[in-house]
Specification:
445 residues; alpha/beta; TIM Barrel; eight-stranded parallel beta barrel; 37% helix; 14% strand; binds phosphoenolpyruvate; binds manganese (II) ion
Length: 445
């Protein structure tokens, strides 16, 4: 356990973005119930992810992290979960072909239910209500009742996370994930889409390679029949995160067992704040979002505090500075980390620095901006003698219309067709696959 840390030490630090509840007694009862419920993941799995992230850091693997901006309780349905898995599996196949490396698959899934907000309130048609903070805290519809913080939602979030994870585990272990049967990963609407055609060609060549491997192997290779799939979410609601943070039965320290990979958001990464204090004491691999205002010294201090032993795989820095700013902001961050010899995995989130509003006030992102930030990030890391080791995306396997652009040429006028997100706009299937093909091109050996 790190010096001066205990499971409650975050409580003496300022905690931003925390909801307040009308009935603290009800909150305490819910937290007590959560503390008795079984963990969602195990410390062995968490350690295994950390080892895989260490490989990505060493240049031997690549991280694909993606999913909803905000999961919703109502969307815990087989179709929606399976389609997220399908798009991530298809993307990872494209990346394996591109890089010849192992791809670490990490969903923003099974617990991504709490959202930081830039304003505490939201006004519509003259009415002002508390902002929507994610289904773990309140509900999205704009009414007094829905926007009231409800402690029972913590239990509902835990349960939906467990149900989601149960389905993911079954799909990853069983026939669904078998590389011999990638037809299982096909989404129903994609038949005539150009990105799917490109993908189909790749799958055909995979079929030939697999026939060859099967012919020369004496027994079936288990690795081809299953996949590793890990979960992540923003560790935002500290009471909730604490209730799932447990001491390992092996005596290897404290782990957040509500997810494999908790991350600290751009709004809560203050070095003196409660979120950093909470995550300082756990053994999980952790992510830190880095926005355009982050100072290099600040990032170095954070990394040192969160990883004093310089343990490989422990810290992933997820930069999200916005296209057009990568060249000016990123080199100093990379150099500062190189100078202090901290081991980190660098990941680019090309979504959160590129959110814009349409003329009608809807949040969107331009596909070209997302791609431009990603390409610049590859180039800047290369020119600094560093390596971009992964990507962090908001995406869905469904045919939504939330981001504009991409090969199908979605425009602002199309956004109303299927704008389903509860929070930030996500890449749809085609846009996500297009990004995967571009990355594959960048990470070619
Ligand atoms: C997010 O990942 O949805 C998010 C809020 O990101 P950031 O902390 O980078 O703004
Ligand atoms: Mn988001």
């Amino acid at each position: 356990m790190p010096a001066n840390w205990n499971i409650d030490s975050w409580k003496s630090r300022p905690a931003s973005q925390q909801p307040s509840y009308l009935d603290p007694q009800e909150l305490n009862e819910v937290l007590a119930a959560l503390r008795l419920l079984p963990p969602l993941v195990t410390s062995w799995e968490v350690d295994s992810l950390k080892q895989q992230l260490a490989k990505a850091q060493a240049g031997e693997a690549w991280l694909l992290q993606g999913g909803d901006c905000a999961e919703s309780l109502d969307d815990c349905q087989s179709e929606s979960i399976a389609s997220k898995l399908k798009v991530l599996l298809q993307m990872s196949l494209v990346l394996i072909f591109g890089s010849g490396q192992r791809i670490v698959r990490l969903g923003r899934i099974a617990g991504q239910y709490a959202k930081p907000r830039s304003s505490d309130t939201e006004s519509r048609d003259g009415q002002t209500l508390p902002s929507y903070r994610g289904d773990l805290i309140n509900r999205a519809p704009f009414s007094t009742d829905h926007r009231r913080n409800d402690p029972q939602l913590l239990l509902r979030g835990y349960e939906r996370s467990a149900l989601t994870l149960n389905f993911i585990r079954a799909l990853s272990e069983g026939g669904f994930a078998d590389l011999h049967h990638t037809e299982n990963w096909k989404l129903t609407f994609v038949e005539d889409r150009p990105e799917f055609e490109r993908y189909r060609e790749l799958v055909n060549s995979l079929g030939d390679a697999l026939k060859f491997i099967d012919a020369i192997s004496a027994k079936p290779i288990a690795e081809l029949g299953r996949v590793d799939f890990f979960t992540s979410h923003e560790a935002l609601h500290l009471d909730y995160e604490q209730s799932l943070t447990r001491e390992s039965v092996r005596g290897t320290g404290w782990y957040n067992l509500g997810t494999h990979f908790p991350w600290i958001g751009e709004r809560t990464r203050s070095i003196t704040g409660a979120h950093v204090e909470m995550l300082r004491g756990i053994r999980n691999p952790i992510g830190i979002k880095i926005g355009p205002t982050a100072k290099p010294e600040e990032v170095v201090d954070l990394v040192r505090l969160l990883n004093p032993e310089n343990e490989p795989g422990r810290v992933t820095l997820i930069h999200r500075v916005g296209q057009g700013k990568v060249e000016t902001i990123l080199p100093a961050l990379i150099e500062a980390i190189q100078d202090c010899r901290s081991q980190v995995l660098w990941v680019c989130d090309p979504m959160h620095g590129n959110t814009v509003s349409t003329t009608s006030g809807q949040k969107t992102r331009r596909f070209d901006d997302v791609l431009a930030e990603l390409r610049s990030a590859f180039a800047v890391h290369r020119s600094c003698g560093s390596r971009l080791g992964g990507v962090h995306l908001e995406l869905t396997g469904e045919d939504v219309t939330e981001c504009v652009g991409g090969s199908s040429g979605l425009t602002e006028d199309d956004l109303h067709t299927a704008y389903n997100t509860h929070c930030d706009p996500r890449l749809n299937y085609e846009q996500a696959m297009e990004i995967a093909f571009s990355i594959a091109n960048e990470i070619k050996p």
